[in-house]
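User: two proteins, same treatment. go.

Assistant:
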Amino acid sequence: MINKTTVFEGHEVVNHICAGIDVHRDKVNITLAKSEGNKVRFYYNVFWTVKSGLEEMLTWLISNGCTVVGMESTGKYWRPVLNILEGNVAIHLYNARHIKNIPGKKTDKKDSQWIARITRYELITHSFIPDAKTRQTRDFVRYRKSLVESRTRSRQQIHDILTSCGIRIAICMSDIFGVSGRFLLHCIAHNKPLNKDILELRMHAPLNKKVDEIYEALKGNVKKSDRELLIMHLEEEQRLGVLIDTIEAKLEKMVMDNTERENIVNRLIEIPGFSKRSAILLVGEIGTDLSSFPDSKHFSSWCGLAPGKKESAGKNLSGRIHVRQHYLRSLLVEVALASTRCKGTYFNCKFFELKKSKSTQKAVIAIARKLSIAIYMIIKEGKNFKELTAEYVPIEAQARDLRNIQRIAKKMGKEAAFSILEQVFDDPKSIHFEHQVSADKNI
């Protein structure tokens, strides 16, 4: 164990006895920062990541009076450390992107000391760590997502086989994995005869009206190897579907295990675009405790839906959202796409208004951000969702115009603002300008 004494750096000390952990696969490098008068002393140690080594680390921290531990979210290696420390000391988990040290002076010891300094003075904000139950449900949610992606790949490979064989049934039906489509795939894979009489009997409405088209689309050149591959992909797709259904049933039991969670799920379903399954997946991903987020803006930023700010030399550069993968963002984007198809709703009307000035992708992200705000209000503040309807969109646009006029009036004077209004109103000075602006804030 090595100790080092340095002078107090002048920052406000938040945690007088804390530790920084540099987590690796085989070992953890830990530095304990301890206040002694107007100085701080650093104690350095190394422990193995086996259970006995982590328990020894916990004993060492407690014996030195450590109250807060900070560590970097390195892959999955931080989870065993969290399981040992949880309930004994406070844990601050930092984003690896925010915690980078000075390049060229990087060692395991210096990294742990840097993390200890960050924790001591709380130089950056620590990440959101859900409770133990939410972490369990989150594992199932993310495993389900990987299974859905695998099933999608299997379905794409089935489409590729049919296309290469010249079978174009995908032209006649929107989903070849429905009841009628699966029957056709089974017959093709097992080389069973198909004629118009069989198709009229087995095709469900409205496909029973397209028997002639389907019969022509089934004509192709299917080799033995194509049938063998088709059978394997169909079996894999069905196996993944059964596993996904099992996980969804398991998630429903885990998430809706008490009245509070059931009420939250029921309130989330009231939002246009949300189904019971998507609401369960959302609660399984973030839980029901959002106290770590001060307001809805912080929550939207954590979801990866809020644009950043990048300014240099007085110029505003690109402030696009992060391109990194975010499980919750992908879920909210899917719900946003569904909400834009709900006719007569605020999200539907707002989406088409945004499309006039933005791309479709940016408009969907904007709707997803509004959904994240509604989710925050429902879970954190216990509110019910209130549909504003499509009539609110022009009112919102009018309020935005009034804010722009107010900004012009402050910058150039009221006369300049009235001169702008002359193009719209016959007598702009008859408008009670300040009254309109103050009323705008209450819309």
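Protein 2:
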Amino acid sequence: MLKIAFLSVFYPYRGGIAQSNAQIYRAFERQGHELKAWNFSMQYPSILFPGKTQYVAEGDQADKISSARTLNSINPLSYIKTANQIKAYQPDILVIRFWMPFFGPALGYVAGALKKRGTKVVAVIDNLVPHEQRIGDRQLTKYFLNRCSAFIVMSDVVEEDLKAVMPNARYRLYPHPLYDQFGEKLEKAEARSKLPVDMEQKVILYFGLIRKYKGLDILIEAFDQLSEAYELLIVGEPYGDFQPYQDLIDKNKNKNRIKTFTRYVPDEEVPKFFSAADVCVLPYRSATQSGVIAIAYHFDLPVIVTDVGGLRGTVEPYNAGIVVDKAEAGLFAEAIQSYFEHSQQKEKAKAIQVFKEKYTWDGMAKEIIEI
């Protein structure tokens, strides 16, 4: 049994990072380790946060991991306080989640302080190169990396980014396990009745934050090229102005079969969208890995993705969807038509089981310990 400190974002913060941190935390518990979580007292200043709220809303389902909320991302005094508290805990391992250079100073300071003490610092890395880059990102990332002992990366593109910055890095590649906190898949008829969506329609799902690099505009334009047999569900919170997308919808010949749910979707509502859909489409312009794929696979839902970042490696080896060469509307329209014309849903849904069995949160926790 090891003593583990886990520094990242947990409840009451919402979103995929907090949810997956809870999954890793519970996996450590199941394996019998002693552990304690440290959290942010302030993650982002409100002025820098593009969404409506950073926090779980009343009534949302959430794994309420108990944590010490000490780290303020822009207050150096809190870095010292957090490092001192974790040092007093005397962990064998400090686990830190890293997904954005903005957090490099805060997380890097704590990592360095614990590494000097002799604690092994393992970083679980979602992204090293941000989708929307800013001056200084590379320096902030390097500051953090140099203060860690080892790394878990979740896609081959992050693996290459890590080797470019730190050629001798000690790391392991372990793909993003599935989100399984959403409960069971619903019967398709039940799920569609909740939206509502006609049982005869071929239903395409776009799910997740709406940001430029995620290519929702490409999917809307692709949908314009499809027949009346298709329906599009757009589900997710816009980070920025949704009006440009609404303008595309308004002039789309199939606009009457586009349903929008432009808000944060709490966990209890997630099953109806994925259970109602026939395929999940991710027309990303850039990516590392995708938490949306992890949700889709949980519901046995195949995906159509762009060949960017590590998406091909999460889809193609398992025959769990279609990989499109470029983020272009015409290519996505062709891929969607091909998927339905060749009745690929059952075949690819069955193939997803291989991924489910191979990559688990318990498996990731073991990789962290072993590295």
